[in-house]
């Protein structure tokens, strides 16, 4: 596969072997490989039952992996950081999600790109807009900047 770009959302709200959630995010960015841009780490309130605030960032990476292969690598990184699958919306040492892919859309049961929920998540759109404001969502045709502005207006 030709080299393509991905936007990867990174989040943590639990201490791990690297320290605070922000340090876990920074360590995950270092472990990704092929990083071309990184947003600042933002501290955001949790969604769902978790009480702990999140550290969130977005990294742009280049890779010759197709989306399913990159997803497998991201899940292996999560396991290496101590992430255990199971409870949704709970505290986590690290969460790595493929948000956008320069190849456009990818759809199969185990993986959908762009990420199904990213358009409604400020904790993804805010850091994504810092590094890829002009990247267009292949589904809506809107730029990340436009998606972020729409979300802010809804609040």
From TrEMBL:
The keyword ATP-binding applies. Keywords: ATP-binding, Folate biosynthesis, Kinase, Nucleotide-binding, Transferase. GO terms for biological process: folic acid biosynthetic process; tetrahydrofolate biosynthetic process. Residues 8-132 form the 7,8-dihydro-6-hydroxymethylpterin-pyrophosphokinase domain. Its EC number is 2.7.6.3. Pfam families: HPPK. InterPro entries: Hppk (IPR000550), Hppk_sf (IPR035907). Belongs to the HPPK family. Catalyzes the transfer of pyrophosphate from adenosine triphosphate (ATP) to 6-hydroxymethyl-7,8-dihydropterin, an enzymatic step in folate biosynthesis pathway. NCBIfam families: folK. This is 2-amino-4-hydroxy-6-hydroxymethyldihydropteridine pyrophosphokinase. It comes from Sphingomonas leidyi. The lineage of its organism: Bacteria, Pseudomonadati, Pseudomonadota, Alphaproteobacteria, Sphingomonadales.
